[in-house]
Design goal:
Rossmann fold; 691 residues; six-stranded parallel β-sheet; alpha/beta
């Protein structure tokens, strides 16, 4: 193996960068230790100390890169006859004279490292990629720019892959069960998306293996760096499809020095918080995601705004105070007219209720006195709760779902009787005991929007908005879910990521127009498409492309840059119980330290777990902790967005028949592996896979 002549010199430069990084960390720690933060001094002084302390803590977090490589490249400019070099790395580092040692990958000066091509070198003479393991430099890969006649055909075309050697090495590295960053190997088409302007909605369409998820996460890190003010205060939110996915991606942003981004699934955003851990059937989830639920929830709230059933009377000293049913109807009608949210009108209802009682007295009496003496009596409390109760979203919806009469009344003209029946569920004694489904989250959020703050609970009931929102796998979000996402946007700035061909949910969209119609329209949306497949070898992509012709015939599969690779194995067995463990063992021997995903239809999940256990094959399940064992059993409904070294797809025909978007689900399953995909079946294959 030939050793690059500059290896020792570049190792020395990297060592110097690490020393400067440690010096910066030591200085920040020293300032943090010596800074006095207490109650003394003026308010202005305390505020300044707290702000300074917060800045130091943020800087320490940014400088903590763990075991990740600090420096991953160098760019050499040739301007006015003299060379100028910049090292590009994970964070910006300066020496004691405040001269730059490493330029942050997000800085404008680093852009040529990702964007330069043979046709447009952007002033570069050379781009150098480092292959490192922690602090140790292993190899150097150089790209030279200049005379086009000396460049190969790929470089002259201007659309080749930059840093090909470093990229292929990264792609072929064994998976760890957690998504890693791509900061050292970002390609030009990806960098263009990452550095897109902040305002408005950006839609990124990308097929499997194009890197759309990591691009979206790197974009969040880039925006926080470029727009630190105001985004640090406004917040950045990343919404994923499920908690398994969040566990899979949670290390990416901290590795880029951004630990303050919130990762969440939609149910995490419900306020006040509720317990969510159930999955509805597809037909129920479809109803709950329908925009007709907006009117249904509004009617459900209106049902709780009622005139008294009979005239009300209560003793007050030697006289009786009265409120007629007609008067109560007028109070309710006026409250509906005056107030936008339900809970905000409760004080008005009480004021008018007690004023009417005071007006009914024989002798003049103040309404405030009546209120003070009667407000806690049972008849008054019962009357007020009937007319206009203070409600949380969970209280409203659990009582609504639990009453067929209320459901039928509110659903008249909106839903069929059979559709309304799907929403019914038995009531529990307390709404706090309910475990909600994930599809209930947007319904509860719609209820919160109609109910507003409960008196005295503004902080608990307040929805946090964010300066930028990233939504992954957005092609599966229902109209109600997209409405919920829009409420979390402070200014309409979003990055929407997904693949229409992988739309498999109960509300699978056929175009991005359907999604955009339900998002903020403060600016015209921007669109980008990632067309290059980095993860999936060409032989595996060719098999998946056959399924794509039926799953989404209008879409083209990504172009795989890895032309070589093992061909997929499609194996027919007499019995899965014996054939599947044999295939898993074979793949474990071949893959070494890599991981294997066994992707199954829902109906076989328990059986496959038993077969693997009986065969003494250690394996894990798809959990919030991610793919933490070498062999992981994953139902096809949860595998989207994940990647693994080897994928074993079990009984494709069942996947197609059991999933609502069966062909699209099969396409997802066949596009998870970075090295090899196998198919095992005892039943007949879908026609598209027969050869």
């Amino acid at each position: 193996m030939t050793i690059h002549p500059d290896l020792a010199a570049e190792q020395a430069a990297i060592d110097h960068a690490y020393q400067c990084l440690e010096d910066a960390r030591a200085l920040a720690r020293k300032l943090s230790d010596t800074l006095e933060v207490g109650a003394g001094g003026t308010n202005q002084a305390r505020f300044e100390r707290e702000a300074f302390t917060e800045n130091i803590v943020d800087r320490l977090a940014q400088l903590d890169i763990g075991d990740a490589s600090l420096v991953f490249g160098r760019i050499d400019h040739d301007e006015d006859g003299h060379a100028d070099s910049l090292y590009v790395g994970r964070v910006g580092v300066w020496d004691r004279e405040q001269d730059p040692v490493v330029v942050d990958w997000r800085a404008p000066a680093s852009e040529p490292f990702y964007r330069a091509t043979g046709v447009e070198p952007l002033g570069l003479r050379r781009r150098r990629h480092f292959a490192s393991r922690g602090r140790v430099l292993l190899d150097i890969d150089d790209e030279l720019f200049g005379d086009l006649s000396r460049l190969d055909e790929q470089a002259r075309s201007g659309d080749g892959i930059q840093g090909h050697g470093a990229l292929i090495t990264a792609l072929e590295t064994a998976r760890t069960g957690r998504l890693g960053d791509i900061v050292a190997t970002i390609q030009g088409e990806q960098d263009e998306i990452i550095r897109s302007p902040l305002p408005g909605v950006l839609v990124v369409q990308g097929g499997p293996g194009t890197g759309k998820t990591v691009v979206a996460l790197h974009r969040a890190a880039y925006l926080l760096y470029t727009h630190r003010f105001p985004l640090q205060d406004q917040g950045v939110l990343v919404i994923g499809p499920n908690r398994l996915f969040l566990g899979y991606i949670e290390q990416v942003l901290p590795s880029l020095g951004e630990a303050g981004v919130r990762l969440a699934v939609l149910s995490d955003l419900v306020v006040p918080r509720v317990r969510t851990n159930l999955r509805d059937t597809e037909d129920v989830a479809e109803i709950k995601g329908d925009l007709r639920m907006v009117a249904l929830v509004r009617r459900a709230v209106r049902q709780r705004q009622r005139a008294l059933r009979t005239d009300f009377s209560i003793g007050y000293g030697l006289q009786t105070l009265r409120l007629s049913r007609g008067e109560s109807a007028e109070i309710v009608s006026e409250a509906r007219r005056r107030f936008r949210t339900h809970n905000a009108a409760r004080r008005f209802i009480e004021d008018e209720f007690f004023a009417a009682l005071a007006n009914s007295a024989r002798d003049e009496v103040e309404a405030t006195v009546v209120r003070e003496r009667l407000r806690w009596t049972f008849p008054v409390r019962e009357a007020l709760e009937w007319m206009w109760p203070v409600l949380s979203p969970a209280q409203l919806i659990q009582e609504f779902y639990g009453s067929r009469a209320l459901l039928r009344s509110a659903g008249r003209g909106l839903f069929t009787g059979e559709e309304v029946e799907r929403l019914h569920r038995p009531r529990t004694e307390h709404s706090s005991d309910v475990i909600w489904s994930f599809a209930d989250a947007p319904v509860l959020d719609e209820a919160r929007a109609n109910l507003g703050f409960r008196p005295g609970n503004k902080q608990a009931d307040e929805v946090r908005t964010h300066g930028h929102i990233v939504v992954d796998e957005a092609q599966d979000l229902s109209p109600m879910a997209l409405r919920m996402v829009s409420r979390r946007s402070l200014n309409g700035s979003m990055t929407i990521v997904g693949d229409i061909a992988q739309a498999t949910g109960s509300w699978a969209h056929d175009s991005w127009e359907e999604v955009l119609d339900l998002l903020p329209e403060k600016r015209p949306p921007s669109r980008r498409e990632l067309k290059t497949g980095y993860r999936i070898p060409a032989p595996a992509m060719e098999l998946a492309a056959r399924v794509l012709t039926e799953a989404a015939p209008d879409l083209e599969p990504p172009v795989a840059i890895r032309r070589d690779g093992d061909p997929p194995e499609v194996r027919l067995v007499d019995a899965l119980a014996s054939g599947l463990p044999q295939m898993v063992r074979k793949e474990l021997e071949r893959i070494g330290t890599g991981n294997v995903a066994v992707i199954v239809p829902r109906s076989l999940e328990e059986a496959v777990a038993t077969w693997l256990s009986d065969a003494d094959i250690p394996h894990g399940g798809a959990t919030r902790a991610g793919l933490h064992q070498q062999v992981t059993l994953i139902p096809v409904s949860l595998v989207k967005g994940l990647e693994t070294d080897v994928a074993i797809v079990v009984e494709p025909a069942r996947i197609v028949s059991e999933e609502r978007q069966g062909m699209r689900s099969l396409y997802v399953a066949l596009t998870r592996a970075t090295k090899r995909v196998n198919v095992i079946h005892a039943e007949a294959l879908p026609a598209v896979l027969r050869d």
